[in-house]
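Hello Y.,

Per our agreement to keep a running log of every chain we model this quarter, I'm adding this entry. I've kept the format consistent with earlier entries: sequence first, then predicted structure.
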Amino acid sequence: MAEIINMPRLSDTMEEGTVATWFKKVGDTVSEGDILAEIETDKATMEFEAFYAGELLHIGIQEGGTAPVDTLLAIIGEKGEDISAHLGGGSPAVAAEETAVEAAAPETVALPNDVEVITMPRLSDTMEEGTVASWLKKVGDTVAEGDILAEIETDKATMEFESFHNGTLLYVGIQEGESAPVDSVLAIIGAKDADVKAAIASLGSKPTPVAETPKAEAAPVVAAKVETPKAVVTPVIAVKKANNGRIIASPLAKKLAEEKGIDIAMVSGSGDGGRIIKRDIEGYQPAAGGVRPFVPAGIESVEEMANSQMRKTIAKRLAASKFTAPHYYLGVEYDMDNAIAFRTQFNSIPDTKISFNDIVVKATALALKQHPQVNSRWYDDKIVKHNHVHMGVAVAVDDGLVVPVVQFADEQSLPQIGALVKDYAVRARDKKLTPAEMDGSTFTISNLGMFGIQEFTSIINQPNSAILSVGAIVQKPVVKNGQIVVGNMMKLTLACDHRSVDGATGSKFLQTLQQYIENPLTMLL
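Predicted structure for the entry above:
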């Protein structure tokens, strides 16, 4: 019997996966425990093994393909087994269901050939709906290609929308001041005697009289899957001639004039109210001795990169953290002279090497033991304080950021912390960390000091209540014992979730942390 293999959920935050590599192909024999494929999750690339024996009959997601969790990944079964029912190709139940749906579907009315449906255009990359600011034509008016039909207010600007068809304005679907989603029916243009009622019926709308609709009785907005004509649109711009006389040009005319190097101020308009339209530019003949304006010759270019699973998850989780947890920030500056001397002496021991980051991790873990409120997690009905310290250490990788966890960081020695963090960093860049190594943090540290960043703020790595941002050690003038001397200073910024960590609580934690960092010998006592 065929066994269905779906895209597995390989981490607690995984919502979709990418097939990095298939180790089996259709027709291969599969044994229980064989590695079928490598799956790229939001955190790592992991091997996925078979739990069934048989022949690989079908692959549902090809290498490089991405699909949500529980999507059909593969089918394993007996050689020659019919799997059409699992693919929707031979199941009587499926066929019956499809037949029932088709029977229940309303009869489709064909769109008359002598009409054109104009839908709400997408005039910006972020536009989801538009508002009709004003109609420049009314029902019954003759419309020529290039005429401005309406002014549409988007999320960014109010823009002119011109007609790409000739005919009569037969129907207005969205009245002035009304808003509707992109692709809603905006208007219908066609032959003067066209059956507009049939056209509206074909779109699923109730027939509306072919007459100008009073503003008090707005016509319904009808959503229809009609291809939006590709519109050339620009913000409403007033163009003035050299003599300060005002002229108006359609967006298409402006575009054509720019392409042809024509000074639009020298063109006479034949459209409504003297508006310069497409045919005026196409038929323009410059006067003798005219000077051709400068036409920019630069080339615009962009590069598109598909978002990886890791980048998608980072974006989703950080946005959720920033917009749900009320962040506030506490900044401090610590004297690192003693820490520098301590590290130098510590590293003089044979086969021993620790970093400033290791010192910060250890000091932070010890400070958290004294301030469990900072080492906590917020729930709607409670705050959970952790008596153990599992330190998340942010590591930069090509696709973004991962946070492996140093468990029981307060109990580990500085060399142990250093070795573990180094190992995590290497395996993180190779995408070899396991989900277990990135789960369970109670607090997080992000250190950009090695990149020369002196001060920054971080977004809390939920469900933690706080995150510590560590900057570079910088030499600067400081006052010690009443004298100005050269000091080594390091800035840290604590981001806290105000729901679980109050300002005074965070401040006391930083005071304790200061004692450990500025007097690192106390960490060994």
